[in-house]
Design a protein that fits this description.
Layout (H helix, E strand, L loop, with lengths): L26 E2 L6 E2 L6 H15 L8 E7 L6 E7 L4 E6 L7 H12 L10 E4 L3 E5 L10 H13 L12 E3 L2 E3 L7 H10 L6 H6 L2 H12 L1 H4 L6 E3 L8 E3 L5 E3 L5 E3 L1 H9 L6 H10 L10 H15 L4 H14 L1
Length: about 325
């Protein structure tokens, strides 16, 4: 999930530009931080981190002893480090003590689900516990000249993986809040109940959303069959904003930090595109293998409500996000 920003309206005639999320090693911080650069830990903290890594995080992985742990920015839920070892290896470690005990195991499951020939590169899981996750390091490569074309093709391959129902075999997380994924035959009912209405139960949403907007969410949820055309349940990343895309070591497209489930393909596109546009080559490659229904751009703000509601549910002071929600709801109601 990304930081809240004003929601532009994209149209079929909009000019095309290529976002540049890979210009630096920075990562967009989830849920409300600006673009930030990797921090430099003080020497004492770094020495302590390396000691812990040597004795716990990398023990038994045959990677050598940890000699450096460089903090990385970008994750909302975890502290993330790039760890270098005496054998010249490099891994990424995500850790946090106060997260749900199954969060990292479910993230690992999601990464495994996304790994498919012709799809996005994803990091391999080296170790998973309740308090940390060790992944292969995708590095800091530059994107290849065909990055967005390859990304469009990879996303089409991913969305061609379908299921008989909407949902997933496990509930997982979006941010640190549960994402409910019960198998559901009706995609409209699934999105209404488990991607919109469920956030109205969260205290931060209850306290921040005006009562009229809460009623509007309920009305829009009831009108989904007339607003969203039927789509097959496809395998979704579930949190496909630019901060979760990066170049693989070969410069091709890779993805991290999933919230996987089977849902509407347009929902992935809404998260990816709502704040900007991509090269025509992305859409040409995607639609060659996975055509989009007419009017899909007009549906992006509606599908984006799920992310905005989730942001509001995580934080107690999101006036700008609440304003975005109100604007979208007024146009839909």
């Amino acid at each position: 999930m990304r930081s809240p920003r004003p929601t532009p309206r994209l149209t079929e005639s909009s000019s095309v530009r290529v976002p540049k999320p890979f210009e630096t090693a920075s990562r967009l911080t989830k849920l409300g931080a600006a673009i930030t650069r990797p921090r430099v830990a003080d020497c004492a903290s770094r020495a302590r981190i390396v000691q812990v890594l040597t004795t716990a995080w990398l023990e038994g992985l045959s990677l050598g002893d940890a000699i450096a742990a460089d903090p990385l920015e970008g994750g909302y839920a975890s502290k993330t480090f790039r760890v270098r070892t005496t054998l010249g290896e490099s891994v990424v470690v995500k850790t946090q003590d106060d997260l749900p005990a199954d969060l990292y195991a479910l993230e690992a499951d999601g990464l495994d689900a996304l790994r498919a020939p012709g799809g996005f590169a994803v990091p391999s899981v080296l170790r998973v516990t309740s308090s940390y996750l060790v992944l292969t390091d995708l590095g800091t490569s530059e994107p290849s000249p065909t990055y967005w074309e390859d990304a469009g093709r990879a996303l089409a391959v991913q969305h061609q993986q379908t299921a008989d129902k909407f949902g997933y075999h496990l509930d997982n997380y979006l941010g640190t809040l549960p994402q409910r994924n019960p198998w559901t035959t009706d995609g409209h009912a699934f999105f209404a109940e488990h991607r919109l209405l469920r956030y109205l139960e969260e205290p931060n949403c209850h306290n921040q959303l005006p009562s009229e907007d809460r009623r509007r969410v309920e009305r829009v949820a009831g009108r989904l069959p007339e607003l969203i055309p039927p789509q097959p349940p496809s395998l979704l990343h579930g949190d496909l904003w630019h901060g979760n895309l990066l170049p693989a070591p070969d410069g091709g497209p890779a993805m991290i930090d999933p919230a996987v489930h089977y849902g509407w393909p347009e929902a992935d596109l809404a998260t990816l595109l709502i704040y900007g546009q991509l090269s025509d080559t992305f859409f040409d490659a995607y639609e060659e293998a996975h055509p989009l229904a007419p009017g899909w751009r007009d549906r992006l703000p509606l599908l984006h409500l799920r992310e905005l509601l989730c942001i509001t549910a995580h934080w107690p002071d999101r006036a700008e996000t609440v304003s975005e929600i109100s604007e979208i709801l007024k146009e839909l109601d």
